[in-house]
Amino acid sequence: MICFFPFRIKFSFFTLFIKGIVLKHRFDFLLFALYDYQVVLGSSHSVENIVK
After folding, report:
1. What's residue 50's pLDDT?
2. CA pair distance 7, 23, nearest whole angstrom
3. How far apart are CA 25 and CA 52, in angstroms?
4. What pLDDT score does 47 carry?
5. What is the per-residue pLDDT across 4-52, written as a single tens digit (0 to 9) for each?
6. What angle do CA 8, 14, 23 make, to 5 degrees?
7. Ordered DSSP codes for 1-52
8. What are phi and psi of 3, to 5 degrees?
């Protein structure tokens, strides 16, 4: 038990690190998608304003 304990701590930190990277990439992707969506909405509104 004592021998495996440091390994388990390292492994859990590694797992948390990987999860953090994955979550960050997902969050960046969501922000990028949201920004892209706003740009599309903004351009469509500007086109509507030009037509009017």
Report:
1. 53
2. 24
3. 40
4. 52
5. 566 677 788 888 898 998 888 888 888 888 888 777 777 665 555 555 5
6. 135
7. -TTHHHHHHHHHHHHHHHHHHHHHHHHHHHHHHHHHHHHHHHHHHHHHHHH-
8. -65, -40
